[in-house]
Amino acid sequence: MLSENQNPKKWRYTWEAQSHIPLLKLFIFSPEINPITHCIDLNVDLKFEKSLLILTWKHNKSPNPVSLFVPLPRVLVDLDNPLYFSALDDHIQVKIPLLLSVDHPIVSSFISELSSGDEFGAFSSSDGFLEPLSMDSDFKALSSKGDVDFYCRKCAFKLTSRSVRCLVDLPSVNWTDVADNWFGTCCCSFGGISEKLVNKYVKSYRCAEGSCLLTAASVILCKDDVSGFKSPKDLIRSGENEGWGDIDVNSISDVGASILVESPLFHDSSAKLSSEHISTDMNREPLELCEDQEEKPSCVPARVDSATDAEAAHSGCEHDTLESSKNEPAGGPAALEADQKSFLNCYLGNAFLFRLDGLSKDIDWIDFACPQCCCTVGAYPCSDGSEPLDGGIRLLKCNISISPPSELSADLFSKYTLERMFTCQLLESAKDELSFRSVVKDLKTKSSMMQIVLLNPNSWCCSGCCSEGTAEPFVKINLHPVVKVLFSHCCDNPTSKPRMDQEWETKNLVDEIYMLKHVIKELVKSIEKATGNFPPSFSSSPGFLLSYVLR
């Protein structure tokens, strides 16, 4: 990081390029300088062999020329074409023609070769290239490891009490819709074939001990495999909560979430954490601690092939289905248990991002914190303020690692950040949109906390501080894929402008997204910090700031 002496005017730079366009733009700006009046006789010199751009000009109040040094990212520059540069009101703009666009496969191979070799001598690379987020690659990498443990990324505490080795990737689609679409033209669709297929899938995906369900943004572990997890019933049984040690567990029907407040492992993310959930009717039937007396499978099946199952069901639906239905009991062989019914409407997600059709007023989400550093690492769903509804704890990939502290540099989940997980899921809904508007709401209160407009999902950027008067030292930098956005937030006071928010949401037919409040605040903090990477004049939309988010 440059010192104040190396950059006294606080000059910043931002490199920007677009996919499929062989042009690289540079924006240089300082809050203390107006380039159009202060930068006289501006000149730009490209030192390609040193990966350096040198800007010089004469200051109107100083006889000595000013020199500014900017590191050049790894790109293929067209040296036969001249540079274009100009001084504007609040920034200096430079345009550099390229031989190939930054996302061209040849450029990617070129950068990979440079990063793996020693061409840069003692210089170090800044972040390198970001690997894409892929469930398939995660599944293959985790499967090849055999036994897998998960650690808190902040303090390296081991979050798993036992290693998991059975991995299943959890589909992110609405299974009911998929089944109905598949059997929509089937003559037996009214016989409940799609419902039976969905129930079969639901029963295949359960949080069994020793297993791990893999989603796009989280891993789902059985609560018994998570270190430090104690339900309110466990706390009552062990007498760890003051005032509850002498109470018989079997006398409690609905354990109130007020117990959760006593433990640092739980934080309220729901609307129903109050003493009203403590049953006052002591004559009610005692709660059965073990509702499910059936033996749980030691491992969930690996990767259910939906296409194969669907074809098999479809081919036999005209005969086998009607015949078997005669012999089924009233409840049906595929009757679901209480902890599995929530999957039918996709209520139970990855604890990161929720859609409107995936919400239920009967389900609350409780944050789960690392037992050692109390940093929130995930969440779990519940319906009574106590036990996880499906027995599973969701650990967000951006908060965990699969390697011990000594091996974090090669960790599989190091590529996962809050920003990248957000944009990855957001872009899935905006593939066919040139401009996509969304509103992010608090999962608990349903109030709007952030409005975001996707401007360009095909941008590449990198930012940093310039060096004034000296070119040493510089690290090698890479352009990273980003999404340019306009955003506005009211996290500090969500009720400050409800009317304006409602008008904007109604007028633009925005997509509603629901997230846990602490996740939204962290996301806003990151996006707001990136607004300083552009000149002030770039934020031209009233009420919105220009920023970018890594993808």
Automatic annotation (TrEMBL):
This is Ubiquitin-conjugating enzyme E2C-binding protein. Residues 315-334 are annotated as: Disordered. Residues 316-326 have a biased composition (Basic and acidic residues). One of its GO terms (cellular component) is ubiquitin ligase complex. One of its GO terms (molecular function) is ubiquitin conjugating enzyme binding. GO terms for biological process: proteasome-mediated ubiquitin-dependent protein catabolic process; protein autoubiquitination; protein monoubiquitination; protein polyubiquitination. InterPro entries: UBQ-conj_enz_E2-bd_prot.
